[in-house]
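Tokens for chain A. Residues wanted.
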């Protein structure tokens, strides 16, 4: 597998603490990117973006997660729902990444969903938990 092309996302970058930290695709065309600035004292108002053309273009979320997010995963059997997780909480989108709403305040660095609808988060100090949605 080779990298075909790289495109900029509307998530601010520019130094090692800022940028895209996770991507997830539900099919070849529809994807989500999350990130932001992981420093706790820095705002991350544009922490999510979406694509419907395989990543050739990316649009910012209308209502982004409120802070840096480091993991994202589509919910199984859903064309529009996904979770984003980070050190200050977890958000759910039900409109394919246009808007996100907070569903938890636990600290998770990554999230993944299994085909049986189980979603799991992992984070610092050995934290691992099933995330309910």
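Reply:
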């Amino acid at each position: 597998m080779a990298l075909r092309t790289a495109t900029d996302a509307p998530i601010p970058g520019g130094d090692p603490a800022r940028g895209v930290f996770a991507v997830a695709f539900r099919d070849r065309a529809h994807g989500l990117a999350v990130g932001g600035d992981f420093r706790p004292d820095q705002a991350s108002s544009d922490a999510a973006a979406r694509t419907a053309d395989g990543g050739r273009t990316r649009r910012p979320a209308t209502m982004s997660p409120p802070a840096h997010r480091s993991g994202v995963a589509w919910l199984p059997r859903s064309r529009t729902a996904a979770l984003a997780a980070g050190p200050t909480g977890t958000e759910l989108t039900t409109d394919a990444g246009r808007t996100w709403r907070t569903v938890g305040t636990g600290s998770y660095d990554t999230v993944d969903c299994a085909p049986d609808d189980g979603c799991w988060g992992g984070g610092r100090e050995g934290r691992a938990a099933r995330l309910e949605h």
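DSSP finds no helices and eleven strands in the chain. Residues 71-133 form one domain.
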